[in-house]
Amino acid sequence: MTKQEKVQFVIDTLNDIYPEIPIPLDHKDPYTLLIAVLLSAQSTDVKVNQITPKLFEIADNPFKMVKLTVEEIREIIKPVGLSPMKSKGIHGLSEILIEKYNGEVPANLDALEELPAVGHKTASVVVAQAFNIPAFPVDTHIHRLMYRWNLSNGKNVKQTEKDAKRLFPKELWNKLHLQIIWYGRQYSPARGWDLGKDIITNTIGRKSVINEQLKKKK
Q: Distance of CA 29 to CAs 68, 121, 152, 215, Å?
């Protein structure tokens, strides 16, 4: 298979498995999505979805959020981890959104990355899912799978994102990054990986990765 045929195989397989793709984090607008994605750093979407209803009941926009103290925010979000940094970030970015953007979340990657506690991945998720601007946010699942599928060298997430954007058509990025995340969770996890169920890696995967996995099974 050529690289282009491998890419097409990935696209076709993911479209078969996930014709409709749910967004993993519960939210109702760009602001609540931004907060949910920020909270999901080094945490699980399940945990974040348990915490955000309580937070958004009290403060679901920047004007309400700044009325809370950093400590009050921290108390609510504590279960997701990194709460000191995240609570300061949430309070700080809410102030900036009010001062610079009339309380609206900017539909701009660079502007989002300037906000406290908002990294490139968080900003990419927000522009993709809230504003439908093509982006390819790379999380641990995408980074792992792009390496397993021999579509990237696995050096770092920056390189993986560059490779993904080069290989996959731009109009598919927003859907595809979610499809790969779901596939990674269900069929190609980091732990408890059953190669027999992982049709994509089985078909196009990096030989060294497949051989190592087969050795483990023996």
A: 20, 18, 33, 47
